Amino acid sequence: MAPPEVIRMRRDLATPFGDPVWPPGVVLAPFHARRAGELHALMALAYRHGAGSVDEFTRWWPALSEDSDYDQDLCFLALDASGTLVGAAQCWKSAFLKDLVVRPDSRRRGVGRALLLHLFATLRARGVTSVELKVHADNPAGRGLYEQVGMTVVSE
Q: Going by C-beta distance under 8 Å and a sequence separation of 6 or more, which residues neighbour residue 62?
């Protein structure tokens, strides 16, 4: 089976993008290594029907946490009122959005959008001028969200 077509997108952080609006009962939380297993489980759930993939935890976590481009301060979690992880965004220091995942039962509520806008503000505060990502061409919901927050296609 051929790998899915990938689209590269970019967002200029000099142009306005607005403040994140968190859905009722959802709060932003920082990432800590003790939540790595929970984050991995969310990624596996979010990617199980395509639109991305995640290696098994014993390979994924060491590869991620030991990568020189990794910064846990660029990983943001969205928790519901019970403390359950419902979304996450993690970005490399190079301003490349590595993963944006939202629990299937929490999608279309604004969690992904709020995570993206928070990430944009964090990167801009660090002096970053743009952020990039890759999205599978067969992920129209993801691509639509990225376009809604001002990301544009730079290559297909």
A: none
Structural domain includes residue 25: yes
The answer as to whether 44 is a domain residue is yes
Q: pTM here?
A: 0.94
Residues 103, 73: Cα–Cα separation, whole Å: 21
Query: Tens of pLDDT along 21-32?
Result: 999 999 999 999
- In this structure, what token pair is assigned to residue 103? 């629990």
Token pair for 78: 């969205």
Burial of 156 (0-12, 13-18, 19+ CB in 10 A): exposed
User: In the chain, how many domains are there?
Assistant: 1
Residue 156: C-alpha distances to residues 49, 75, 100 (Å): 22, 26, 19
Tokens of 57: 């935890």
CATH number at residue 140: 3.40.630.30
1 domain-assigned: no
